[in-house]
Design brief:
GO terms for molecular function: DNA binding. The protein has 11 helices and 12 strands. It is α/β, with parallel strands linked by helices and 332 residues long. It has 3 domains: 51 residues, lambda repressor-like DNA-binding domains (434 Repressor (Amino-terminal Domain), Orthogonal Bundle), CATH 1.10.260; 131 residues, Response regulator (Rossmann fold), CATH 3.40.50; 125 residues, 3-Layer(aba) Sandwich (Rossmann fold).
Length: 332
Amino acid sequence: MTRRLAEVAKKVGVSEATVSRVLNGKPGVSEATRQAVLSALDVLGYERPTQLRGDRARLVGLVLPELQNPIFPAFAEVIGGALAQLGLTPVLCTQTKGGVSEADYVALLLQQQVSGVVFAGGLYAQADAPHDHYRLLAERKIPVVLVNAAIEHLGFPAVSCDDAVAVEQAWRHLASLGHERIGLVLGPGDHMPSARKLAAARAIAGRLPDEFVARAIFSIEGGHAAASRLIDRGVTGIICASDPLALGAIRAARRKGLGVPSRVSVVGYDDSAFMNCTEPPLTTVRQPIEAMGRAAVEVLNAQIGGASVPAEELLFEPELVVRGSTAQAPRE
């Protein structure tokens, strides 16, 4: 019992005495705190007291495209924790190849009568992907928040990291090190965040040769294949649209017998877990995950509470984190 009190109290950010009052049905606790404690019980896997089992916490779908990229578990931790503090229980929905689709998850969430849905990465960012399930959510007037850039006209509020600023920071860093042949490893052509990054790079570079832009699936293997093509074309600095793509670029350089950063400099994007532990430690552009996740929950909770929230995009400033994967451009 003592361990349960301590864990729940830590999760919610209240005292063990407050948790005890909720579990014993005593007065003197606000409704928001009460709901947060009950939600924390659910999240931590504890059974509610018998007298409280009929008092179910509100559910919120948290839909992620994958868990292999560390950025998505990081978003899930922040968003899930913020939801629990508001008395909302996150329902994690993760896509797998050949498994349940995003549309299937939306159908399941609607069956569960969820209070809202947060999408952190998904088909909303791809222009050529199916979007009928988003329109279904809009028709049902389900509160929705999207994390990072979406295609136009979906009509949902979004919380995004500024892709243009991210590329500008990375590009200027490589240019300051003397790199003149800078390439990009981006996602598919219909991927909105990648499109924004490409537009920013072209604005900075003035003229960016098409052969210095390579497309890839978001994985280490995709980064390896795309970066290999860029290196063959003489690129010495590579800006990648995710950290796994950047790790693939480093591997591509090494497979060609080229040192990183002595011959090829690589910049990632996200600053996901353990990027300071790679060899070399990865220079990357950090997304402000904590601020973005909490903002997404605030926007969602406002909608759940009946507030009118405009379908606008909140842009958050990224931060360049310089580590060991970038250095002065090699002398010919």
